[in-house]
Amino acid sequence: MTQSQKSQRPAFRILIATDNHIGFKEDHHIRGDDSFDAFEEILQVAKRNKVDFILLGGDLFHELTPSQNCLYRSIRMLQKYVFGGGDLSYETKTLAGPYPANYLNENLNIDLPIFVIHGNHDYPMNAGDNISTLDLLHASKLINYFGKFNNLDELTVEPILFEKGPVKVALYGIGHIKDTRLHYLFEKKKVHFVPPPAEDYMCILIIHQNRFKGIRPGAPYKNCIHPTMLPNFMDLIIWGNEHESAEALVEDPVQNFYIYQPGSSIATSLNQAEALQKHAGFFEITEKKNFRFVSIALRNQRPLYVKNLELDQLIDNKKPNAFQKMKGDDDRETIERRVEDKIEEEFNKILEEHENNIATQKRLKNPPLIRLKVEYSGFDIIRVKQLELKFMGKVANEGDVVKFWRKTTSKKAIDYRKNKKLGEDFEDALRQKISFETLTSETNDVLKGLVKFWF
Ligand SMILES: [Mn+2]
After folding, report:
1. Domain-by-domain residue ranges, the chain?
2. 61 CA distance to ligand 1 centroid (A)?
3. Nearest Cα residue to 259 out of 211, 192, 224
4. 209: CA distance to ligand 1 center in Å?
5. Rounded to the nearest whole angstrom, what is the distance from the C-alpha of residue 187 to the centroid of ligand 1?
6. Is 138 a catalytic residue?
7. Catalytic residue among 121, 176, 208, 354
8. Which CATH class is domain 304-454?
9. Tens digits of per-residue pLDDT, 327-376?
């Protein structure tokens, strides 16, 4: 079949993205526009591909109560893309709750409908009137907010039904609910899905929850949602909240549905998962279980490079006891200089890679985000103050490039952490400063004294 024949077949076109975190670091002198630019690219991609609607999986906003500036910019951007002369070529059969879609209002011309659920960053606030920022935008007819439940003891999830000629889509959504709560509700069979009126509906469920990643010792099993909990009459699950962007759909072997995890459109933490290419997903549905999927790489991005370095390899692999020398101040200085040089060398390698990338890809932002994670088990605390100064002007995360960390796996460390006398916050603060594995009984006593003083 040729491309033109294909496009003549009636099809429902949806662009899916999630975790846009609009307003993230909006006051930052370098990164202030990043979240807005990334979201605008999604709107542009949707327009270019003439989608029937955009579907967003939560955390549209980074803050529960976005700043006025953030709201103002978002409203202006949405108005530019949402309104227009476009005649929508599909019918919306039902829309659960008191939330008619904006395009059903006969006084408005909507060109690009957007359906959104809330995430943990923009959930309806418990205090007050249970209002989310998404409610404000919905009332302004800029978006269609769904998946909101007022009673969290039992959920009945009704679909929004779309029909475009012979193509039928049933859209289910559950906005973020505390993971342990939703897990519990599923276990107690308190989540009910109203099936579509006929069997030929392509059923899509969008959620914003932690995704079960397999059984590991100590993994918070009940603090996530397992695909096996979701109804198997679904054809496609859209997983919001997870920021790692997956390029491909995953077919669940048990449930007979596909899972799509678009990932965030902006990196909100400087880690390996966020450093991967960001995507939005384009779906062209022709009938139940029959669709074309294209993963669209988002280009208007600030590149993030994350590299893990191990200190003992940086210094000298053949001298595992190099740290012993660090007891003398002179030797410490020598070693620290060598560490600095090595880290700078790695930094420059990344910068070179970045220069090549921006030469070939136009919309990438400059300067990049660079995070060097240096594992320093077996060494005293290293001071490399000069490094961050050297990186100034070359990165978007100035003063925040190098992070030292240390494995704390010794029995002593674990026992110490179990010490109930330590408050969690205090413990975290300590963990950032010092490794428990190196504590002598003497420092233990000092710490106990500190704890007493602290509380
Ligand atoms: Mn998020």
Report:
1. 3-297, 304-454
2. 9
3. 211
4. 10
5. 25
6. no
7. 121
8. alpha beta
9. 445 567 777 788 888 899 999 999 999 999 999 887 889 999 999 999 88
Cα(5) to ligand 1 centroid in Å equals 39
**Per-residue b or e along 371-396, where b marks 16 or more CB atoms closer than 10 Å to that residue's CB:** bbbbbbbbbeebebeebeeebeebbb
Provide the token pair at 173.
């959504």
Q: Taking a C-beta distance cutoff of 8 angstroms, is the pair 43, 5 a contact?
A: no
**103: pLDDT confidence band, cut at 50, 70 and 90?**
very high
* Widest CA span in the chain: 80
pLDDT digits (tens, 9 = 90+) for 395-449: 999 999 999 888 765 555 555 545 544 444 444 444 443 333 333 333 333 333 3
Q: Which of 87, 162, 160, 176 is nearest to 125 (CA)?
A: 176
| Backbone dihedral region for residue 395 (phi beyond 0: left; psi -120 to 50: alpha; all else: beta) | beta
Q: Cα–Cα distance between 96 and 87 in angstroms, integer?
A: 23
CATH number of 3-297: 3.60.21.10
179 Cα to the center of ligand 1, angstroms: 14
